[in-house]
Design goal:
Methanol Dehydrogenase, Chain A; mainly beta; 2 domains; 26 strands; four-stranded antiparallel sheet; 2 helices; six-stranded mixed sheet
């Protein structure tokens, strides 16, 4: 038997490789088929409508979900997208191996900005005048605190001014001017004055919710343990994700800015997204199920009730502008 194996070891090895490759192909085909099937299914009814990236079959088409739950695909392809007041920011693949932020106003492309890494977050202010994005510089993820590098840019469409990185702004941490260089910023959300903003600061295995001033080019910390903030339409609350312990799962919380009261949203465990306010009482966000495509859910901002599934095989949710 040993002699036979020696004589035929090449054949055995090739056969084993073919079997492994075949199994891999079957798995990929089945996964794509399942995602495509999910993409054809109607979503849940959303009174105010929903925009999202359709991840079914890897198409990444920007699509909409109307009040009846009907999914309508568009022609724009994005990895992350957000629209407000007629302005859309689309983070997409540009040249092979490169990414860019494309800005559209009333459907017309008006600006393209090269990105230094993999798209992660995208936002447009309620007025449509301020656009922001976050990318992973090295393609890492948020899963390893202190083990990734981000760049967050802000574009003012009124003046055309581009802030390539928030690292150029001054930072004050808990009342002390900060000079550290190992800092990451991500997840911008801009207030209705198109000047005040909130974002995340990550440094030395600690995250902070920060408040910034675009004109003054300055930022200050608000509180620890908050990531990917999203300011409510009435400007009174900020939703963000927060870890249950250093290595625990993320959950969504809503902070009342006046009282400092924090409300946990039940059933949001495992969320890894910058939630979007669909209206003053409802948040939408994507969660990835184990081994599957992301699914978009909505939750009541007051923490009442469990999340409701809106649309499968989809990500980057936002309100219909």
């Amino acid at each position: 038997m040993k002699d036979w194996f020696v004589r035929n070891r090449i054949v055995v090895g090739v056969t084993a490789m073919v079997v492994v490759i075949a199994l891999g192909v079957v798995y990929v085909v089945a996964t794509v088929r399942d995602q495509q099937a999910a993409a054809t299914q109607p979503g849940a009814a959303v009174a105010s409508g929903l925009t999202f990236v359709d991840n079914g079959g890897g198409q990444n088409l920007v699509s909409t979900l109307d009040a009846s739950g009907k999914r309508t695909p568009g022609s724009l392809k994005c990895l992350r997208v957000y629209t407000a007041a007629g302005t859309t920011v689309c983070l997409r693949m540009g040249l092979p191996g490169a990414y860019e932020a494309a800005v559209y106003v009333d459907g017309k492309e008006v600006r393209t900005v090269p990105l230094p890494g993999t798209p992660s977050r995208a936002r447009v202010s309620a007025s449509g005048k301020i656009v922001s994005w976050t990318v992973f510089v090295t393609g890492d993820s948020y899963l390893a605190p202190g083990g990734f590098s981000t760049r967050t840019g802000v574009l003012d469409l009124r003046s055309g001014e581009l802030v390539e990185s928030l690292e150029a702004f001054s930072m004050t941490i808990e009342g002390v001017p900060d000079k550290r260089v190992n800092e990451n910023y991500w997840g911008v959300t801009v207030a209705s004055d198109d000047n005040t903003f909130y974002a995340t600061l990550g440094s030395s295995n600690t995250t902070w919710l920060i408040k910034g001033d675009l004109k003054a080019r300055s930022m200050v910390t608000v509180r620890q343990s908050a990531e990917c903030p999203s300011l409510s339409p009435d400007q009174t609350r900020v939703a963000y994700k927060k870890r249950g312990g250093r290595l625990g799962t993320w959950q969504l919380f809503v902070l009342d800015l006046a009282s400092g009261k924090e409300t946990q949203l039940p059933g949001s465990d495992g969320v890894d997204d910058q939630a979007a306010w669909l209206n003053p009482t409802t948040l939408a966000y994507a969660k990835v199920q184990q081994g599957g495509a992301p699914t978009i859910y909505e939750s009541a901002a007051d923490g009442s009730g469990q999340p409701r599934e809106l649309v499968a095989a989809a990500s980057s949710p936002g309100p219909v502008a």
